[in-house]
Amino acid sequence: MNTPLLKKIVLFILLLTSIRDSFAQTHLLSKDARVSVITCGTGNESYALFGHTAIRISDPYNNIDVVYNYGAFDFDTPNFVLKFTKGDLNYFAVAHSYTDFINQYTYEKRSVFEQELNIPLELKQKLFDNLNHALNSEERYYTYKFIDKNCTSMVVDILNKTLGDTIIEKKADTDKTYRTILYPYFDNHFYEQLGTGILFGKKVDEFGTKIFLPFELQKSLKLTRFQNQSICKDNKTILEFTKETPFSWWNNCYSYLLLLGLILVLNNKKVDLIYLFTIALFGLFFSFTALYSLHKELAWNYNILLFNPTLFILLYFYFKNNKKWIYNLAVIHLIGLGIYVMLLVNKAHWLIVLPLVITNAVILTKMALKTKPSKQITVN
Fold first, then answer.
1. Residues 18, 34: Cα–Cα separation, whole Å
2. Burial classification of residue 160, based on how many CB atoms lie within 10 Å of its CB (0-12 exposed, 13-18 middle, 19 or more buried)
3. Residue spans of the chain under pLDDT 50
4. Which long-range contacts (CB under 8 A, 24 or more apart) does 285-288 make?
5. What is the predicted pLDDT for the residue at 212?
6. Residue among 173, 175, 196, 176 at smallest CA distance from 50
7. What is the pTM of this model?
8. Do 281 and 315 form a contact (C-beta atoms < 8 A)?
9. What one-character DSSP code corresponds to residue 145?
10. Which of 37, 99, 187, 202 is deepest in the core (most CB within 10 A)?
11. Extents of the domains making up the chain
12. Spatial CA neighbour of 329 closest among 304, 311, 303
């Protein structure tokens, strides 16, 4: 390699290093610096159903107005769906200019609220340093977990790290389960509500003692005190939009009830078999995700008693015309449904899955009655 070319490469590398270092360098904030928690309203897209949390740091003297966001992910990640399902998908922190951030939410017609933190300048500086360090190190990456690690919990963690103690913690609704807390967010999104109800297992029936949703953090900040004063000022509305209710001819309870009602009214053997096959297929998927996924929310899923993969065995004996085992397995599955109803009775999603319970019970009862062994009468 010739010397002039080598010099150019070295100079280019030094220039890149200089740019990186200058970007990573932390400014000293002025006394006019403001630190606030941003809470973004919910949207109609699946990723926006629960809102969003970010941190804003502004300092007019230093011409700084930055929003730090822990909710970024890369759709181009190899095996994206499998990684997300397994629970080892990396999310990461990014920084936006405040103007760009607000423009995005204006475009999406989602409300934005701000809570300025009442903390001394040295802690504002510490938070600014912590955020910039995280942004320019491996700390920017984290493995997403629905309850334990998300854009809101990461904000809580870095705020508590800055404050030097667990100052910010759950202040309200600790007597409600995670499932109960989540349910209202699915209003007008029926099948998302149904899907979440049957996919999530025992963990989401625990009491919601952790802050994991943006509006939970907003509510808790209002009730948190630090250094003998409220940790935040009054909630300020940056953007306000009336959330539009989406219309869908199929994503509603009416299509759900109509479909299950038709299955029962038709009383057709082929339709019943297709229904049981579909239920078993869902059960196989739930079993796979419970074993494969690192998401604790999917483990110990008692909804398997409704979406039971062993229905495949019942269908096998049905096609073999083995009446004895058709009857035995139908009865076993009916007992399983009874246990499921007892487990379900105090859960948030009991009403939404009740039509499925009834449909399963009717079809299995018909099978049991048609294959019930006749009593043998012995005459002496």
1. 29
2. middle
3. 1-24, 377
4. 286/198, 286/199
5. 95
6. 196
7. 0.85
8. no
9. B
10. 37
11. 32-174+209-239, 253-371
12. 311
